[in-house]
Amino acid sequence: MHNLDAAGHVRGESQYLDDIPTQRGTLHAAVYGSPLAHGVLDGLNLAAARRAPGVVRILTAEDIPGENQIGGIVPDEPLLAEGHVHFQGQPVALVLAETEAQARAAVKLIEADITPLPVITDPRVAAAQNELIVPPRTFRLGDPAAAWAECAHIIEGTAENGGQEHLYIETQGAYAYPTDGGGVRVHSSTQGPTAVQRHTARVLGLGMHKVEVDVVRLGGGFGGKEDQATTWGALAALAAHVLRKPVKLVLPRHDDLRMTGKRHPYSSDFRLGLSADLKLLAYEVTFYQNAGAAADLSPAVLERTLFHACNTYFVPNVRATAYSCRTNLPPNTAFRGFGGPQGMFVIESAIAQAAEQLGVPAYEIQRRNLLQDGQVFPYGQRVDDCNATQSWQTAEEKFGLEGWQREVDAFNAENHTRKRGLAVMPICFGISFTKTAMNQARALVHIYTDGSVGISTGAVEMGQGVNTKMIQVAARTLGISAKRVRIEATNTTRVANTSPSAASATADLNGKAVELACRELRARLMRHAADELKLEYEGLEIRDEQVLAAGKPAETDWEKLVSSAYWKRVSLTENAHYATPDLWFDQTQEKGHPFAYHVYGTALVQATVDVLRGTYDLDAVRLVHDFGQSFTPGIDRGQIEGGLVQGLGWMTMEELLYNEDGRLLSNALSTYKVPDIYSVPPVLDVEFLETPGHPNAILRAKAVGEPPLMYGLGAYFAIRNAVRAFRPAARPAFSAPITPEKVLLALHGPLLPQPPAPAAAAATVTAQ
Amino acid sequence: MLQFYLNDQLVRPTHRAGSTLLDYIRYQQHLTGTKIGCREGDCGACTVLVGELQPASGAVRYQTMTSCLTPLGNAHGRHIVTVEGLGRPDGGLTPVQQAIVAEGGTQCGFCTPGFVVSLTGHCLGGAATAEAARASIDGNICRCTGYKSLERAADQLTAQLLTRDAAPERLAWLMEQGYVPAYFRQMPGRLAELRRATLADVAARTGGQLPDPNAPAVTPPLTYLLGGGTDLLVQRADDVLAAEVQLLYGHQERCFIRAEADGRISLGAATTVEDLRSSELLLSRFPRLRRHLKLVSSTPIRNMATVAGNFVNASPIGDLTIFFLALDARLTLQNAAGQTRQLPLRELYRGYKQLNRQPDEQLVEISFQPPAEGEVFNFEKVSKRTHLDIASVNSAARLRVAEGIIREAHLSAGGVGSTPLYLRRTSEWLAGQPLSADTLREANALAQQEISPISDARGTEQYKRLLLRQLLYAHFLEHFPQQLTLQALL
User: Taking every annotated instance into account, which residue ranges of this chain make up the domain 2Fe-2S ferredoxin-type (chain B) (predicted)?
Assistant: First the structure.
């Protein structure tokens, strides 16, 4: 099954925000962002900009009729700066002009009078000054304090990861115009139409019923348009509402890069205790999350870091603490993996350091500690239907881990200017929004009298293929051809109060709602067929558009049945609601059952380092992934390949650089590099693990959006292993991305101080 | 009058010659398949085909270009093809489109038209090899697929193109198979007709005339000389839009690669990087040229970027500048009065982005002595991403070694100072030294004194110093692996 949107994509016919034909009189908007990262906003000089050619109006916080507030989790983020500025690029004013070029030119004429305040860019500095977005949180299991005494080896260290720019190729934007009755309609490139609707209503002082948000599709999202599309939607809506004119706001790439938040950088401290036979006994970790200047989704991202702090390993004694630190960077936000990858990077670093210090391959430690059914996650959920060992063993056998390692060792023994490294990266990722209430979805299904079907849900298509999946679900459930089914644009007036398309859960939640609605329609049509044709209801079904009674063709097909139902005044519309069963989480105890299920997999990654130049190639990634019962294998494989490559990019070349003034230095595609076609490994094998899937997954096909990104972490460790094959004394800092600069310095630069030798607990016998 | 074919349609835009082809396509013609991703030639979402009549063969040669950096004026007389201009009238898919769909090579779809256009350009003129197919999409960034599905699609096409090469006539085969629509057959004739009309009309071309040496110098203060646009439209798109521009791109008088009687090679200033890369003459003198120039930007940018543009842009890290500094290239500058003077490239730079050039002087020609028998040439570049990236440090070397003695050395280095550097002292010192690890270590010590790198987005000072050392070693290790080892150098 191909992605059903693909034909439109390759013909260039698929419509994105900037392709919507503009209405007569459309004004173009450009944003004036704060030139300083922190300060008191004493005033704005708009006179020159107002006189500039084509300028119609300049809006500031004073022009907001409702509340100047778009904070989602914490109300700490104004739409337009007021009183203070908190990061470079923070929207301060909106210029409306007749053309985009005029609006941009006028922005350059605006001056802000700002009294500078101290700028913080380092999360540890923020934490020391108690600049926290929310109070710290701690997940606990067992008694680590007591467990240290049992440990044969105790490893301590620090790990850091950089942020990551989403680099959706379609930048953020919105097109808004006034509607009849004082409302506003917003075409938005957002993963969260309801968030745009809710915040726009708040900003305009309107009821949500007067704000309609419509999304056809996104040119990429990856989390970057989950909450952060709101600013641009609300700004366009504000201007449209105030000026009573259509207004288009599409961010130029440079504005998008410097004004929007990214994946969170983290700096973390770890302490890992192992038994003599390499069992993980105790793990303490402290995460300092660089949240940026406002909460955005940071508290939720922080929570998922804690959920995934132990990755796919069982550790009986855990204390994981996380601080969400306020800095003067753009508010960091959701990005595929949502804090999970940051948590996993730390424990993988701890294991790598343990392996190096103990002189064993890291995979010996990884393999011995994989999760098993019946164990418990640090957040209290029982480990069930666990595929950690199955995926590891399958990968180990299919790809010959031991033999592969021997080949790498042999290569390294023979070659002096090129060195290879191999790493294994197993993953475990929980599926569900960790905020339990968000795990609900609705579907509105219309069967038209000609038998065609229109479906509306809260799902936003952004390349993940959710529309194709939902069409499949509807076609299978109704027994009709996929050609009859269309997924409508996501629109807040058809399906309300939606959760964003995020958390890998979009197909599960919305697909289940589609399935429920279609089942009800099917049952209704079968009852009608039974009445009309005097057939037994039991045993009636529709297959390939033919109505079957006890397996034999009946005297009606889909088209006739639908038409006949209409004439008998049977409703051909259904609206279904789905809520994932059995989810709960008690934040006071930090325990519960937050996930519908978990996804597992294991990747092997090989890298080769050019010792002379410090450059490297990723040679191969071979992985076994737990798809459950995939019904769209082409799409699902695409998610694995794409997610993996994003993870490889994050670990290698994607380097976000801010200077101490909070200015983004990697502020263009010429300085922020994402993988190109030559960067991806020549070998990329994806094996489907044989599993029954999970009943909470749509048609037992497990969610596939976020998990593969974390296979990319393997690249960091493979490259690091290759560096150490050349220079065994090198202990490169656990600092991602591992750029060619870091590699070259690790190969030939000054040696970093050695970490202390593993501390054995004093005078204790190792626990077996 | 500015006129060109946009797909099947003759258009005569009245917009400014320095405005972008992209904006014209999207906002004047509402051909929205051509997408805006970055407006700096780094993503390829706006890729179009630019077809140019080849006077010699009478055929149209199609190249990919990023329309965000293509000055509208550069479309003059050419055939511009967008994704809409490739579509089959029956609504079916072309083989390129089918391959992408079949392999799952599109997810969000936003970058997809760029890939379709690039691969179609490859099918029109590229070699039927996997390597060439991949190279055709090396300027297209996809953030969704991870490229493997696109590689599989490209491989499908490579298999099909073997049939193309066996066909009696390529274009006929491509049209029969539906790669391009039937109107492509008429394009050579249409462009020839445009050319005739244009020759009569060249002076009236919007801002596009070459300077007349006999005309008085009336250079308006805000005139930009635009070559391929690959730098000016990144740095100063708004200014260029507002200014009068002079277009240089594609002028036959400025596009040539020629062997001179004295053994030197001359290049026209508007020669593109791809022209260099596909020159048999240069390949015969620089056996590693294709590999070296593959490190320079991407296919569409190489199709646009000119040699002179790389020099006068004065970036301390310009790849071609570094390449030609080691070759001691000589420049011919021409002023508005038509007078010319010669200047060594090594004397062009006075300071950061400052040129030893009068405002009315244009760089018209470059000439250099290619490596002779017994000489070797090497180019090294390290960047965060190996391809389509700007170097952290780059360096070139021209070396003559005989009987274990370095007879002559010319080393250049970029990214380690405020201008592209010729490492004069290091080069002079090396001449006469034995080829040994000690010599190279001493050369590095000298080179470190000649450079003054700063920390920036491309690396810290510490890294750039270390990297320069490594690249200096690399020049010798590449060419003299029998005499030197990395272990001995470290």
Answer: 1-86
B106 and A6 within 8 Å at the Cβ level: the answer is: yes
Could you say which DSSP state residue A138 is in? E
- What is the fold of B4-86+182-247? Ubiquitin-like (UB roll) (3.10.20)
pLDDT of residue B212: 46
Q: Residues with Cβ < 8 Å from A201, sequence gap 6 or more?
A: A66, A207, A208, A210, A211
Residue B28's nearest CA partner among B6, B43, B48, B45 is: B6
pTM of the model: 0.96
Three-class DSSP category at B147? coil
Percent of chain A scored above 90 by pLDDT?
Answer: 97
Could you give the residue ranges of the DSSP H alpha helices within B313-436?
Answer: 319-326, 424-430
pLDDT per residue over A583-616, tens digit each?
999 999 999 999 999 999 999 999 999 999 999 9
Beta-bridge mates of residue A429? A599
Give the domain ranges of chain B: 4-86+182-247, 95-176, 252-489
Active site residue A687: no
Nearest to A242 by CA among A250, A234, A252: A234
- Kindly report, residue by residue over A340-383, the tens digit of the pLDDT: 999 999 999 999 999 999 999 999 999 999 999 999 999 999 99
ipTM greater than cut 0.90: yes
Contacts of B199 (CB under 8 A, 6+ apart): none
As a three-state string, the secondary structure of A203-214 is HHCCCHHHEEEE
- Inform me whether the C-beta atom of residue B393 falls under 8 Å from chain A C-beta atoms: no
CB contact under 8 A, B109 and A679: no
pLDDT for residue B246: 80
Domain ranges for chain A, please list them. 6-118+172-250, 266-434+588-748, 440-579
Across A642-707, the runs of DSSP E, i.e. the strands, are 683-688
Encode pLDDT of A175-193 as tens digits: 999 999 999 999 999 999 9
In this predicted structure, what is the pLDDT of residue A593? Answer: 98
Using only C-alpha atoms, chain B has a radius of gyration, in whole angstroms, of: 23
Q: What is the CATH number of domain A266-434+588-748?
A: 3.30.365.10
Query: Left (φ > 0), alpha (ψ -120 to 50) or beta: where does B441 sit?
Result: alpha
Secondary structure of residue B190 in the 3-state scheme: helix
Average pLDDT of the residues of chain A: 96
| pLDDT given at position B201 | 54
Give the model's pLDDT for residue B242. 78
Alpha helices in A498-582 (DSSP H): 506-533, 558-567
Distance of CA A329 to the CA centre of its chain: 20
CB nearest B110 (choices: A220, A634, A745)? A220
For the domain covering B252-489, report its CATH number: 3.30.465.10
A266-434+588-748 shares its CATH topology with A440-579: yes
The mean pLDDT value for A291-297 works out to 98
The shortest C-alpha distance from A684 to chain B (Å) reads: 8
Which residues of chain B are within 8 Å of residue A621 when distances are taken between CB atoms? Answer: none
Please give the helix or strand (H or E) that residue A20 lies within, else none.
none
Contacts of B261 (CB under 8 A, 6+ apart): none
CATH top-level class for A440-579?
Answer: alpha beta
Local structure of residue B263 (DSSP, 8 states): S
Tell me the C-alpha distance between A58 and A103, whole Å: 10
Q: How far apart are CA B42 and CA A673, in angstroms?
A: 9
Is residue B466 within 8 Å of residue A748, measured between CB atoms? Answer: yes
- Which residues partner with A132 through β-bridges? A325
Chain B closest CA to A364's CA: distance in Å?
30
B95-176 maps to which CATH number? 1.10.150.120
Binned at pLDDT 50, 70 and 90, residue B209 comes out as: very low
Minimum-distance CB partner of A252 among B39, B100, B388: B39
pLDDT of A768 reads 33
